[in-house]
TrEMBL record:
This is Hydroxyethylthiazole kinase. Belongs to the Thz kinase family. GO terms for molecular function: ATP binding; hydroxyethylthiazole kinase activity; magnesium ion binding. It comes from Levilactobacillus parabrevis ATCC 53295. It catalyses: 5-(2-hydroxyethyl)-4-methylthiazole + ATP = 4-methyl-5-(2-phosphooxyethyl)-thiazole + ADP + H(+). NCBIfam families: PRK09355.1. Pathway: Cofactor biosynthesis; thiamine diphosphate biosynthesis; 4-methyl-5-(2-phosphoethyl)-thiazole from 5-(2-hydroxyethyl)-4-methylthiazole: step 1/1. Substrate binds at residues 41, 190. InterPro entries: Hyethyz_kinase, Ribokinase-like. One of its GO terms (biological process) is thiamine biosynthetic process. Its cofactor is Mg(2+).
Length: 262
C-alpha cells in the first residue's frame, strides 16, 4: 500500500474536476482542498472540454442529476476518455431507483470509467446481483461482497471500490481490503461522495489506478478512524468538522501507524 502517495498528492496539488450533487458539493470541495488537492466544479456543458483539459482527474457523481446534467455528465465522461484523464464514477442510489440504474448503464455505454466507487447496494446493482439497497445507503443483502465487487469490475472492465465497514478494492482479479474506518462515516451524508473525489485525486498522481484506489480508501478511512478515536462521544456534527481538520493535518506516518489492510 503506497501511503506515501499522500505526500505526492500534497506536493502536486492536482486539480480534480467534479460534477457533484447539490447535497454534498461543499463537502466534496472542502474535503479535496483540505487533503491537498485543488477542486473545481461546473454545471455548464459548454465548458466541458476546457474543464477536463485543465484537470488531472475527473469525478462524476450521479447523486442528483437532471436530464440537462445527464447530457453534461455524458459529455465530460467522453472528453475525459478522449483526453486520457482518469475518470471516477460514483453511482449514487442506482440500487434503489430503477431510473438511475438505467441512466447509469446508458452513460457507461458512452464512456469508460477507470474506477467506480459505491456502497454494496450500488455495486450489486451495477453487477446485476440481487440486493436490497436503501436509498443512498447500502441496505441489505446476503451475497459475498468480494464476489460482487469482482463481478462488477469484470463486467465494466475497471477498478471497483465497494465501500462499507470494510472497503473491498478489486481490478476484477486482485483484491485488497481496507479495514480501517468508523461508524461515524455513516451519520454524515457525503462521506461516500468525498471518498469518490479523493479516489480521483489519487488517480491524478498514481497511474496504477488499483494502487491509487486502495491508497485513497486507506487514507480516508484511517483519517476518520483517528478523528473518532481522538474525541470520546463524538457526534455527527463535530465529526464532520474534525474530519476536515484530519484530512488537512494527518501525516503519512500517523496513517501508517494504524493502517489495517489485507
Ligand atoms: N460501519 C462503518 N465502519 C467503518 N467505516 C465505515 C462504515 N461505514 C462506512 N464506512 C466508511 O465510510 C466511507 C464512505 O463509505 P460508504 O458509507 O460505503 O459510502 P456511501 O456514503 O456512498 O454509502 C468509506 O471510507 C467507508 O470505509
Ligand atoms: C442525500 C442525497 N440525495 C441525493 S445525493 C445525496 C448525497 C449522497 O451522499 P453519500 O453517498 O456520500 O452519502
Ligand atoms: Mg454514496
Amino acid at each position: 500500500m503506497k501511503v506515501d502517495l499522500l505526500d505526492t498528492l500534497r506536493h502536486q496539488n492536482p486539480i480534480v474536476f467534479n460534477i457533484s450533487n447539490f447535497v454534498t458539493v461543499q463537502d466534496v470541495a472542502n474535503g479535496l482542498n483540505a487533503l491537498g488537492a485543488s477542486p473545481i466544479m461546473s454545471e455548464e456543458v459548454a465548458e466541458a472540454g476546457e474543464m477536463v483539459g485543465l484537470s488531472s482527474a475527473v469525478c462524476l457523481n450521479l447523486g442528483a442529476f437532471t436530464q440537462t446534467q445527464v447530457e453534461q455528465i455524458r459529455k465530460v465522461g467522453e472528453v475525459a476518455n478522449q483526453q486520457h484523464k482518469p475518470l471516477v464514477i460514483d453511482p449514487v442510489a442506482v440500487g434503489a431507483v430503477a431510473y438511475r440504474k438505467m441512466v447509469a448503464n446508458n452513460l457507461l455505454t458512452h464512456f469508460h470509467p477507470d474506477v467506480i466507487r459505491g456502497n454494496a447496494g450500488e455495486i450489486a446493482a451495477l453487477a446485476d446481483v440481487d440486493w436490497q439497497a436503501k436509498g443512498i445507503d447500502a441496505g441489505e443483502g446476503t451475497g459475498d461482497l468480494v464476489a460482487i465487487a469482482q463481478a462488477c469490475a469484470q463486467k465494466l472492465n475497471c477498478v471497483v471500490i465497494l465501500s462499507g465497514p470494510t472497503d473491498v478494492i478489486t481490478d476484477g482479479t486482485r483484491v485488497v481490503k481496507v479495514l480501517n474506518g468508523t461508524p461515524l462515516f455513516q451519520v454524515h451524508v457525503g462521506s461516500g461522495d468525498m471518498l469518490s473525489s479523493i479516489v480521483a485525486a489519487f488517480c491524478a498522481v498514481e497511474p496504477d489506478y488499483f494502487e491509487a484506489a486502495q491508497t485513497a480508501c486507506l487514507v480516508f478511512a484511517a483519517i476518520g478512524e483517528r478523528v473518532a478515536q481522538a474525541t470520546p462521544n463524538l457526534g455527527a456534527g463535530s465529526f464532520s468538522v474534525q474530519l476536515m481538520d484530519g484530512l488537512q493535518l494527518t501525516t503519512t506516518a500517523q496513517i501508517n501507524a494504524i493502517a489495517a489492510h489485507q
